[in-house]
Amino acid sequence: MEGIQLMDFSQELSTPVESLLQPAFFDTWWLEADYSENVQDSVAPITSSRSASAPTSASDCDSTIDLISPQILVPKKQDTAHVTISPTPGLSLLEQLHIDQPLMEVIANKHKRGYYRCTHCPETFSNIFEYASHMDKYDIRREFKCPFPLCPWKILGLPRRPDLRRHCAIQHKDHLPADLKEMLNLKDETYPTLKCPHQYCDKIFHRKDAYNRHIAIVHEKMGSRFNKRMFQILADCPFDRECDRHRYVKTRMNTRRNSTSESNGNTMMQRQGRRHSISIADIH
């Protein structure tokens, strides 16, 4: 069975965000197919002799687990005439992430508590750098790049056109111009914003599964860190009036969260710098 043929979308994928407002662009790219999580690309039979723990395929998030396109692709030499040139020729995905300092700062300050799951094999990864290294190891190149400059998926890419449309709708919904939302038919009811109903929590979600997981783990679980801290602050609260108590608890909860986030961000940046400087050195 012949390998999957990749069309050359390099000109489209290098289009800046501002140019996405051109109608012709969507006629030939975004609006060509409707999104469906159940649609899978055709695949060749698995013939690799690798161990079960290693992917026998070309491998692949937004969100806690990347479950966008769970198809399995068999590594196969492809006709170079149909392969899109990577954003930075000659550099691995991991190297491209590390040389982009503005992007590295965003990654360091974004605290993802879940994990990344490869969409082409069962492996999971605790951070975006391990995921990129995995894609480099098996020479995975995905053609549909996010057009936002501070998003790691502009480098790692997404498997299919509908995946990229969905990614932008969920991850960048608040940054899309009104004209672009209308052109993409991204109505609020299609990808609704879900605000946590807890009176002392300000979390906002764009995915129903993440919202449900947050409610179950953070608020319904009595022994969660959030609940333990909230009960302690309520016990220490010196106010009797409900409005004063509410303001006091919210202030204390937010103060702790902000200081912890800043500390975690600095620690994460240091750890990632040490760990992945070694990884890049091993590549050369």
Automatic annotation (TrEMBL):
Xref: PROSITE patterns: ZINC_FINGER_C2H2_1 (PS00028), ZINC_FINGER_C2H2_2 (PS50157)
One of the record's GO molecular function terms: zinc ion binding
UniProt-listed SMART domains: ZnF_C2H2 (SM00355)
Keywords: Metal-binding, Zinc, Zinc-finger
Superkingdom in the source lineage: Eukaryota
Biased composition (Polar residues): 256-270
Region feature (Disordered): 255-284
Domain C2H2-type: 194-219
InterPro entries in the record: Znf_C2H2_type (IPR013087)
The protein's name in its UniProt record: Conserved putative membrane protein
Gene: RME1
